[in-house]
Every structure is written in C-alpha cells, then in structure tokens.
Write a structure and sequence with these properties.
Strand order of the largest sheet: 1-2
Mean pLDDT: 88
Largest sheet: 2 strands, parallel
Order of helices and strands: HHEHHHHHHHHHHHE
Number of helices: 13
Strand content: under 5%
Low-confidence stretches: 352-362
Radius of gyration: 28 Å
Structural class: mainly alpha
Oligomer: single chain
Length: 362
Amino acid sequence: MVLMEWFAGHAPTLPVTEHFAWVTGWTSDPDGRAIAAAMERGKVRHLLRFKEAPPGLECPVVLHNPGWVRPFELFARLLGTPGPAEADPSRLVAVIAPLLFGFMFADVGQGAVLLAAGLLMRRRWPMFALLVPGGAMAIAFGFVFGSVFAREDLLPPLWLHPLMHPLPVLGVTLLFGIAVILLGLLLDGLQATWRRRGLHWLATRAGLVLAYLGLVGAFVQRELLWLLALGVVWFLVGSVLRSPHRLAELPKAAGELIETLLQIAVNTVSFVRVGAFALAHAGLSAAVVGMADASGSLWAALPVMLFGNVVIIALEGLVVGIQTTRLVLFEFFIRFLTAEGRPLHPLAGPATVFRTSGRKPL
C-alpha cells in the first residue's frame, strides 16, 4: 500500500525514456548504502526498496570474511558453498591449514622462500596468497625443530629434532587431530541449533561426542571407557525416543553409531600422517645434507645443497599442500559441512562500446 501511494505521488514527475529501468534481484549490500553511494556517484535518479525473499525461494549465499581469511574460502568452495544454515569454516581453516602445513614443512629457510613467493605472486595469482601464512608457519616450526635450509646444526631447536624423537612428533599430531574432529562435531551441533533441530542433536549426536571422548580418553586412562558406554546408551535411547517407530529404530541407530564411530576413529588416525610427513621432510633434509657432506669440499657441497633445497621446496611443498587440503576436506569438513548453498553471482558490469571509426568509448 505504501509503495502504491508513492507511485501515485511521484509517477507523474518521472520522465518515461529509454533510460528508465527496473532492476530486481539479490544483493550482498543488506542496507543498500553501497548501492545508493554508487548511484549518487553516477548521478542516477533511483529508488531502492528491500523486502523479504519470496517464500520457498532459496537465498544465495555470500561469504563475508576479512582480507586475510578470503584465500582460505577456496577450501569450502572445493565442495560447494555453505548453505544459509551452515557455518562458514573459512576463519577456522585459516588457522588449521597453516598449522598443518607448517608442521609438515618445518624449515626456517625453505619457509622463507615460500613466504616470499606468496608475497610476490599473490596479486597476479590470488591462490598463491595461501603460501604467505603457510610459509610463515613453516618458519615458526623451523625454529621449533631447529632446521634451516635442511640443516639441523645451525640452529638449536626450541623443542626437538623430529628424527631423534619421532614418537612425540606423532603424538602431538594425534592430539591436534582429536581437537579438530571435536570442533567439527560441535559445529554440527551449532548448525542443528540454527536449523531448529538442537533438541534432536542433543538427544542423539551429543551421545556420539561423549562416546568419542570416552574412546580416545581410554588410551590415557582405561577408566574413561565408561564415557564410551554412556555415550552409546545416550545415542541409542535418544534415537529410539525421537523416532515414531520406537524399537524398530534401534537396529538402524546401532548401525549408524558403529559406522560413525569407526569413521571418526579412522579420521583421527589420519592426522598421524601430519607427523609422518614431518618425519619424511626431516629425513629428506638429512639425506640432502649427507650427500653434501660426502662431496668432500665446500664448492661441491654448495650446488648439492642448492639443488636439494629446490627439490624439497618443489616436491615437499606440493605433497604437503595436497595432504593439508585432504585433511581439511575429508577429516574436518565431513563432520559438519554439506555445502549445498547457492552462491551469489553478481551482475557483470556493462561492456565498453567503441565507435567503429576510432577507439574512444561512447
């Protein structure tokens, strides 16, 4: 009614020309300030009107992240676009992925090379911006492990040398994997709340979280197995009570519980590969240093070290990047992200029109 009154009062003053247009669609500018400012700069007479989306129509999704997080939106987009009721994991991935990469590629000198390459190439190829935090974390873990351009005799480690103490390296990565998987399970519960299924999640999948805590805790203290039993009972009872079929739901719930727990256990063990690749990186570095030392002279050792570091940066950098992506996608995202959202595709700007007799734009 208000809109009709506005037209009745203002329509006679609007000249009807070929420049009049009605544009409707979605926008990533919720309050219209950016659109209005652009219209004002172009001296375009306009009316902006925002209303609720038609019922049953799926709204497109726009990811809003600070500049340092935007390169990590690539990980979620490898699966699709997070839906309106899903968490955007980009900020979490911006922390998790560099930690994984840096731990597996721990070297002060080699990390500095990746950092410099990312800074030089990120403007032309935005994907290379991922090398900046990855290289920075490689430098940090290089100090932790005491490695500089494959050599471990130039810098004392802040923690340990991986090849000398492999078990702590593997254990730390396992603990990190447990934390990442628990985070994914909690995000699943948060999304269930957004979908107004929070009570269902609490009655069922919260028991799965408890069972997982009991399962991993039992390796430290056997008495924590009671958490596993409690979680199993919680999940089964909740599934039966929340189902209209009652006892007929029990075999299905039991099968789902066993499958999910086995899957989570495999996902957890997969994070041990982070420590394994850290050991592989240290082993390859030691092999390069050994060949350089066996050359017998400084002038012969220098090209060996140079070529060896180039091979490590190119080969290990690629392998570690692939493993980081795999762990994020298939061990973390699988716990909560379905990525069935519809991305917003902005309208392209008008193409520049040129006169046939010259190159001046109309």
